[in-house]
Amino acid sequence: MIILYLLTVIALAYCWVKRRYSYWKLRGVPCVEPSFPLGNLGQLGRKHVGLINQDVYEQLKASGKKFCGMFFFLRPMALVLDLDFVRNVMVKDFQYFHDRGLYYNDEVEPINSHLVSLEGTRWKNLRAKLTPTFTTGKMKMMFPTITAVADEFVKCLTTAALNGREVEMKDFLARYTTDVIGNCAFGLDCNSLKDPEAEFRVMGRKAVIPTRSQFLRRMFSSSFRALAGMLRVRTIDVDVSEFFMNAVRHTIEYREKHNVQRNDFMNLLMQLKLGPSEQNELTFKEIAAQAFVFFLAGFETSSSTLSYCLYELAHNPGLQDKARRNVEEILAQHDSMTYEAVHEMKYIENCINESLRKYPPFMTIIRQVTENYYVPDMNVTLEKGHGLIISVHAIHNDPRYYPDPDKFDPERFSPEEVARRHPMAFIPFGEGPRICIGLRFGMMQACIGLAYLLKHFRFSLSPKMELPLKTVPTTIVSNSEGGLWLNVEPL
Q1: Cβ atoms of 177 and 299 closer than 8 Å
Q2: How far is CA 439 from CA 125, 277, 297, 427, in A?
């Protein structure tokens, strides 16, 4: 009898899984055949999820459909294939797709309850509170803080280049962005440029470069949110969470006690904490969570973008010289590196955009269907609770939108070329109401860093550089394996 019961359970489970994996076929939606238990994630851990999504996109984009189907484990996911449908999801019909579907748990990990993960009314209210902190005026206030770090960056890199011409730039760039964000988000001198093992740098690495077990926990919790909540799964190590919570707590206590005012993100958050009304107030936990995500999103995405951009410019010396001339010509018209001067360096901005195009930091954007959504062209209803994927990496490297996509060409972002393209063909920061709130800060930080580097140094590829570039399979932000080894020549 026990054997019979066991066989019955196995047979029923097999039938359920078989039925589950027929979800898209039964609705006439093209899909790639899944396999138990990973669905279409068979290469998980060996290949970045963003590249797995791109493979499915490439296989099915010729179908002419708005989207195709795939599976994250047992969860049906719709992968968008059409740019007009991307616009529907992110802008036109945003009310059906306003949540990201990310796992977070207020009780277990309050530091994860930030603008990126929050949903519904909580997200909407918090977004409204934080939007005024990223105006042009606020960016100008933070500009001197960034240039002060950039000056220190040049000094440290000059010393490293004189000691040995070959420099591993990826870690240097991460230390630059760590010090920038540490100053702006926490008001603290992280000192990681001088000390690679400074605590902020160490904790930042732990937060964004997961161990294999952390990576699996994050994948599990995002695919099985309810079960992860019941099991009280943590996606961030306790010591990392406590470090950032304590950093915020000590900063707020010190500033309130000594009436310290600084032109940084933390000061703006503290102003929200103090008023002007209960509706606009932020709690301590909310401030800590926003400072944490601003730190993570700001230092890792910008350093990744700068790394790829510097690699391409080292690989293409003609483009590097052109970018350097852009810096020199603009600085000749200004007394110093001002906010207005950096804003006028259009070719530098084009280089950063082309790096974001070819190597988007976030390869995939995920949305959750919040209400049943009917797609008339396909006579299919996307059901509430299901996930939807926009493969940023696939779109950015699709030859239909970018001829010869493997070529690094900043001229793709001249005003004329941008006007010819579909507006959804370039979405490194997302689009619509949920577009990255800190995109202007990120671009400013990256442009300042690149301008300073090109003004003071010439770069070329070192023999130590591992080619071709390979993407680390287990990180959230796209990153290349191995170091970014460049010959650095002070000018």
Answers
A1: yes
A2: 20, 28, 10, 11
DSSP 460-478: EE-TT--SS--B-TT-SS-
> What is the full per-residue pLDDT of the chain (491 aa) written as tens digits?
888 878 777 777 778 788 889 999 999 999 999 998 899 999 988 999 999 999 999 999 999 999 999 999 889 999 999 999 999 999 999 999 999 988 888 888 999 889 999 999 999 999 998 888 888 888 899 999 999 999 999 999 999 998 878 899 999 999 999 999 988 888 888 889 988 888 888 888 888 877 777 887 888 888 788 888 888 888 888 899 999 999 999 999 988 888 888 878 888 888 887 655 455 578 888 889 998 998 888 888 999 999 999 999 999 999 999 999 999 999 999 988 999 999 999 999 999 999 999 999 999 999 999 999 999 999 999 999 999 999 999 999 999 999 999 999 999 999 999 999 999 999 999 999 999 999 999 999 999 999 999 999 999 999 999 899 999 998 888 999 888 999 999 99
For the residues of 225-238, what is the DSSP string, one character each?
HHHHHHTT--SS-H
Return d(Cα 266, Cα 326) in angstroms, integer: 34
Q: Which amino acid is at 256?
A: E
In the numeric block, which tokens belong to residue 280? Answer: 């606009």
